[in-house]
Amino acid sequence: MRLVVQGRATTVAHLTHIHRLIGGSTQFMQVGEFSYYLPTQTHDVEVVKAFCAEQKIDCALVPDAQRLSHFGLCVMDMDSTLISIECIDEIADLMGLKAQISAITESAMRGELDFAASLKQRVALLKGLPESALQRVIDERLKLNPGAHEWIAACKVNNIKTMVVSGGFTFFANHVQQLLGLDYAVSNTLEILNGELTGKILGNIVDAERKAQELIKLRDKLGLKPDQTIAIGDGANDLKMMKVATVGVAYHAKPVVQAQATYALNFNGLDAIAGLFTA
Q1: pLDDT tens, 135-191?
Q2: 77 given a catalytic annotation
Q3: Residue 230 phi/psi, 5° resolution?
Q4: Active-site residue, selected from the candidate residues 58, 64, 79, 93
Q5: Residue 73 covered by a domain
Q6: Structural domains counted in the chain
């Protein structure tokens, strides 16, 4: 095992204290600008995790077998994971409905509402919105989360195929796919007639079950084993795909997701995922 510690706030004093808590015989090794790891035999790191959380540092206990070179597929959520916004909330803002729709979004992401039903409810409120508003969201509001380019670059170097699978919409998912050079993109399609949103979604909704199915389908198509897969998300509708992947990473996620993920990143960008698996 290796204890991975990551964060801009990390100091020599932090590492020294963590080393003392672990009682290791070796020293921390630096594997990135803000990433360090310590080989360890212990599985009891709760006191270290508590200390790191107080100091706004991410830490994780990672099996030695989990290296970037071992993985072959990474499947990622889009909204609030690869990008910093919830697209439907920003669309709603253009109609003066952001507070109403974002409250439903938040509840769905916490797992309090059925995702498919809540999405239909939110999209219905967008009826009549001009199609041009979608481009405005891209031009004015859509930004990648920190470290997105670096993480995808690390995947490419290690021959890891990448897919965004989103409960959001093709207009945005296809844009993000091109922006990052992702291999695959799966998302929902908004119905548009005469240049306006109808308030309906075409085809089957990309919900939690569909996300898991898409991961399995692509994994099998690529001839990969389950332990060669990573899933990254932040909301309750990402949990099923994170469970069918061997590694589930909760990125600045809701508590219900952090509690069930393999690893959680709360203080770093997406590039810190590479730090987990570099040694």
Answers
A1: 999 999 999 999 999 999 999 999 999 999 999 999 999 999 999 999 999 999 999
A2: yes
A3: -125, 140
A4: 79
A5: no
A6: 1
